[in-house]
Amino acid sequence: MKELEELILEKGKVLDGNILKVDSFLNQQIDISMMKKMGIEFANHFRDKNIDRILTVESSGIAPAVFAAEELNCKCVFARKQKSLTLDDNIFHSTVYSFTKQVMKEIIVSKDYLKENENVLLIDDFLANGQACKGMIALCNQAGANVSGIGIVIEKSFQDGRKLLKEEGYDVFSLAKIKEFKDGKVIFEED
Prior knowledge:
six-stranded mixed sheet; 6 helices
């Protein structure tokens, strides 16, 4: 998605440790117009998959997931990173390693919001090592739901995430694919 790549080049910042800071439009402040365009792109790619529900992890995947759900006319749910007082023990849970925070986190979804035989589209802000996606896949497996595809806003294609997910047979669609970070600059894969 050329417009997203241009926004990353304009507003993104490459930090030490192969981290891309995009909090000015995705991870803290949200560019609503861009989120809507991303939602449309995801919906167009996965429209023929008969998606019943979109699953993401709080918090940065929520905005693009909501716009994709609106386009696909389906439900949207996010996995929480911590259990709240409003959640009972009727939950699916999985453990995920956070690359940017360098900690293990449990992700949780109420069994009320992820159902057997549903076609689920996973959406996440970044794909690096694939751990968040693997955690969401585990939630879907616990529910007996079908993972019908994986939508990624920004993929670090120099890491193993895509390879791991493709080897398991998943349709992975990324809006922006980063080939490498070079001298503090983002270099995208060419189509």
